[in-house]
């Protein structure tokens, strides 16, 4: 079949949803489908356009996948009006560039971004193609939980787009439930396909000797990935400040980039037990995770249905214990309990975070049990081959529903 994927994020972006959109496109192309992707210029999680990307359009190939990259607005602040302009500029550009396409059987829209789903739906209607949506985040839930102005309008738009789709993929069962209850999507149109572990084994690329953790710093508690509003990483810096005040032997490392990184650097200034570092090369990422004593997922209090943190798949594969500051009924909390891979504490409580980090960092036997359980869960539940198979089957079923 001829498949058009409309998604803002794609490799070489390595954080967030880009690895999953990329992997899905590659799996469909490997199955013999003709796959085109319309994506933005790389910008995430730094929130600035990657070096070397100039002009309005750039044509690339990713193996058999044909890729059209489009320039779009990248705001300094990823919320509010800036976010709307960000998504809207990509959606408008995608529609303008692809509106002449007719030889398409299936159009897949990736959410987020929500506005790109508008373009994807219009393109599907113009081409007489089936319209499928992959839901990585739920906008209505995020707007409600983050207190975003205009959230009710966003929710109504999201619901209309999802109900209009011929098929919807939810990346977690809790998302599927929200799609049914909040947006009225018919159960028969929802397919749950889990995000997979997309990092290689740590042994393949060990943490290099030129980048060791500071000597004698005690247990290393690592957060790796996006530094945005949802993560609420001020809580981790506050835990490091408590450790400093109490002279606890522990080091909190925040490695990555994002809209809140500059503020986190400011907050961590003068705290010896906190370090904010830039992202490491992809080839060193698995080794870095495996070299830590504890891996942290931190979320703002009150977040229960916004997203499944993509970092969890990599954390589990690393075989290290996970410490999650999240609500018990959040996707992260549910996932951690299912994997049996670590400990959950109340979000926004630096005292609880520090206490749990010290306990996990000092109890090697318990930490190893959690790590092995996470690794086992990654292999048996979050396998890439199974996800690829399910995406191929889902797209085949969509193609059979194509109105054209």
From TrEMBL:
Residues 16-196 form the Glycosyltransferase subfamily 4-like N-terminal domain. SUPFAM superfamilies: UDP-Glycosyltransferase/glycogen phosphorylase (SSF53756). CDD domains: GT4_WbuB-like. Keywords: Glycosyltransferase, Transferase. It comes from the Bacteria. This is Glycosyltransferase family 4 protein.
